[in-house]
Amino acid sequence: MRQFRRSSFLRSFVLPFALTIWLGACHSWVPARPPSVELPAQAAMPMGDRDELRLHVSDETQMEGIVADLTADSVTISGDDATATVPVDEVTRVEVRKSDTAKTVLLGLGIAVAAFGVFVAVAIAVVCSDGYCD
Questions:
Q1: Which CATH class for the 27-99 domain?
Q2: What is the mean pLDDT of residues 84-105?
Q3: The whole model's pTM is what?
Q4: DSSP H or E stretch at residue 101
């Protein structure tokens, strides 16, 4: 049976580059359905499938996280390091965090073009330092 070794280029450049693009994907906040519809829909989903939400509250504050608990009069949002509970009546608007594929592709292309430009500049500098540009 043949064993194929992965390319060092693949290991040292392509995989980290792809991971960087994937982790740094551009996201944007998209208006969701009214709170009376979106919050119960999110609470009905399994915990792992819930979207990250941004709740706009009537006192001009914003909370980000996933719906941890929903009762008849309050919603609990669980963020990265905190949990907050707010009355459902005070939630004026809900936004959902979605990835933006076009921005992510443009970011990846921009990074690739910049890396290629640096490679060409270094190659020209090396060739010229050897005296071939005279």
A1: mainly beta
A2: 86
A3: 0.60
A4: helix 101-129
